[in-house]
Write a structure and sequence with these properties.
This is UvrABC system protein C. The protein is an alpha+beta fold and 610 residues long. The chain has helices at residues 4-11, 38-47, 52-60, 72-86, 134-147, 162-165, 179-193, 198-213, 217-233, 285-299, 316-322, 334-360, 362-376, 427-445, 459-472, 509-543, 550-560, 563-568, 571-575, 581-590, 594-609, and strands at 18-23, 29-35, 63-68, 98-106, 114-119, 126-128, 247-255, 258-267, 270-280, 307-309, 328-329, 383-392, 395-405, 408-409, 415-418, 452-456, 479-484, 490-495. The chain contains 21 helices and 18 strands. The relative contact order is 0.06.
Length: 610
């Protein structure tokens, strides 16, 4: 049985191809595997019964991590690299120098050959691969030997070999083949294995169609399969590149004040290593990334690569200046761009896993609640109720309340309020109204009171809450204020009579719980406000215009469907509905600010997303 921690991680695995690295209690990698679907494959270790080596492996797994790839083939190739690098105890195949999968080799000889090999040697030959599908690689070599022949015989024997008569050997068996002839063939083979197979596929497709037309269906099927094998063999992938430039790739993902960074190390034409970092930040992520890259090479005495790749949000000239003028580039297309995007996607998955693990881990969320109450110097509690207000230019003023119990949101206890406060700018009045309505009702129902009340705001809202609780209702409930910084991110917690925030450790569980509460109550308030505003905006705006009655309103809505279209319609179109010119002009004037209001709504949407 997997531990609770592993159970939570298993539930968060993506339905994507990639590699998984199993670790023991000391964090040492003990097994590397690949999967078409990481979720299904990794879960199978813990959800099925095993015997022998696999059972022993599972018994020693204390943690795991994943690296997602774009394709199953990339997962195969990355697995090879990771096994050769880490040499895990439980991997009995794919040892250093032997991938377990074949390569296609063009030998370094006077009369070169093309062949299938299993071992990489430093012999000056050209190597392509490795190829996970052995049969596909063999069929591809057979095809190349027929289309771009080199030497298939054992060498000079004073007479032509059988392969020469079949057109699969250039004739080294009985004559001197010029070097430039071999060079031309090798150039074509290299181009083919690097993915330029369009001409060959067209030729084979024509042969397949001809065979089918002649009702030679078995031959047509053979050619069809050959086309498929060629596609499999030369399928583009990012894990192994076609140049030897050592390069480091940096990408990141930011959410809820946390920055997730992925660093890919490309060495010897392949992805050799991945490092990841997670930490909270206050400044812009771009500024943090430049600083991180600078410190990355200085603190670790990391060898500088020949090239650094970064996303286009980072200033490449600045990054280059802080890493001793190593060329820093943002690729726009091709394999490098794909690798950069893959690093970004891994960064996003790592951060999302962190957040969701915190939510799933009940012991940590319960502990987070204790961290909050300890920081405030109040008795340990279980239930938090948090409030936020929302409006647009004073219209449709609403408030919303969320409830967290032992660090977990309980959506069954959420409440929404349409506020009656006339002055939308009076935050204190809005706060008094919703607090009065909420806790008067709880008193009447003899219902459970919260252990802590949090307001999305500062001193004004906190004082308004305490005024109603203490002076009107006679309740003694601790009240805190959740303050955001200029980046609209949770920054501090206010409590007591002082304006000085408590400054929770941004790496603590308590701070993360505060972030979740503030984000959730803001989301809930804005979502409710949108519904109210959408419902009221059409009818109420038209009803408030002088000269527009129920019949005229219904005509307009049936004809145009939205305030925006009514606002943009010519007066002649309005008059066509039987509306007088005076009323039509009044309607146009009253709706003239609809675009401005829409911009405000869009701005609030962006703030929610960010």
């Amino acid at each position: 049985m997997a531990s609770e921690y592993l159970e939570h991680k298993l539930s968060l695995l993506p339905d994507l191809p990639g590699c998984y690295l199993m670790k023991d209690i000391n964090g040492k990698i003990i097994y590397v595997g690949k999967a078409k679907n990481l979720k299904n494959r990794v879960r199978s270790y813990f959800k099925s019964s095993h015997e022998g080596k696999t059972a022993r492996l599972v018994s020693e797994i204390a943690d795991f991590e994943t690296i997602i790839t774009s394709t199953d083939k990339e997962a195969f190739l990355l697995e090879i690299t990771l096994i050769q690098k880490h040499r895990p105890y439980f991997n009995i195949k794919l040892k250093q120098g032997h991938s377990g999968y074949p390569y296609i080799k063009i030998t370094n000889e006077r009369d070169p050959q093309i062949k299938i090999v299993n071992t990489l040697l430093k012999d000056g030959a050209y190597y392509f691969g490795p190829y996970p599908n052995v049969y596909a690689a063999e069929e591809t070599v057979n095809f190349l030997q027929k289309v771009y022949p080199l030497r298939r015989c054992n060498g000079f024997q004073n007479r032509p070999c059988l392969y020469y008569h079949m057109g699969q050997c250039l004739g080294a068996c009985f004559k001197v083949v010029p070097k430039e002839v071999y060079d031309r063939q090798i150039k074509r083979i290299k181009s083919f294995l690097n993915g330029n197979v369009g001409h060959a596929k067209q030729m084979l497709t024509k042969r397949m169609q001809d065979a089918s037309a002649k009702m030679e269906y078995e031959r047509a099927a053979e050619i069809r399969d050959l086309i498929k094998y060629i596609e499999i063999t030369v399928e583009k992938q990012k894990i192994i590149s076609h140049d030897n430039t050592p390069r480091d790739i940096f990408n990141y993902y930011m959410d809820k004040g946390w920055l997730s960074i992925q660093v890919f190390f490309i060495r010897q034409s392949r992805l050799m290593k991945r490092e990841k970092r997670l930490f909270p930040i206050i400044t812009d992520p771009e500024e943090e990334m430049v600083s991180f890259i600078s410190q990355f090479y200085k603190q670790k005495n990391q060898l500088l690569p020949k090239e650094i790749l970064v996303p286009n949000s980072l200033p490449t000239d600045v990054v280059s200046s802080v890493v001793e003028n190593v060329p820093v580039r943002t690729p726009q297309r091709g394999q490098k761009r794909d690798l950069l995007e893959m690093a970004g996607k891994n960064a996003q998955l790592v951060l999302e896993e962190k957040f969701r693990l915190l939510e799933l881990d009940e012991s940590k969320t319960t502990g987070a609640m204790k961290e909050l109450t300890d920081a405030m110097g109040i008795p340990e509690g279980h239930r938090v109720e948090a409030f936020d207000h929302s409006h647009i230019q004073g219209a449709d003023l609403v408030s919303a309340m969320v409830v967290f119990v032992d660090g977990q949101p309980n959506k069954n206890l959420y409440r929404k309020y349409k506020l009656r406060t006339v002055d939308h700018a009076d935050e204190a009045a809005s706060t008094r109204e919703v607090i009065r309505r909420r806790y008067t009702r709880l008193l009447k129902e003899h219902a459970e009171m919260p252990d802590l009340i949090l307001m999305d705001g500062g001193t004004i809202q906190m004082n308004a809450v305490k005024d109603v609780l203490e002076n009107e209702l006679g309740l003694d409930i601790p009240v805190g204020g959740m303050v955001k910084n200029e980046h609209h991110q949770t920054a501090d917690l206010l409590f007591g009579d002082s304006d000085t925030p408590l400054h929770l450790d941004p790496k603590s569980q308590g701070f993360y719980l505060l972030q979740r509460i503030q984000d959730e109550v803001h989301r809930f308030a804005i979502t409710y406000h949108r519904k109210v505003h959408t419902k009221n905006s059409l009818g109420s705006r038209l009803d408030s215009i002088s000269g527009v009655g129920p019949k005229t309103r219904n005509k307009l809505l049936r004809k145009f469907g939205s305030l925006k279209k009514i606002s943009e319609a010519p007066i002649a179109d309005l008059k066509g509905l039987g509306i007088s010119e005076t009323v039509a002009q009044t309607i146009k004037f009253s709706l003239s600010k609809i675009d401005e209001e829409r911009k405000v709504v869009n701005y609030q949407d962006k703030k929610i997303i960010n």
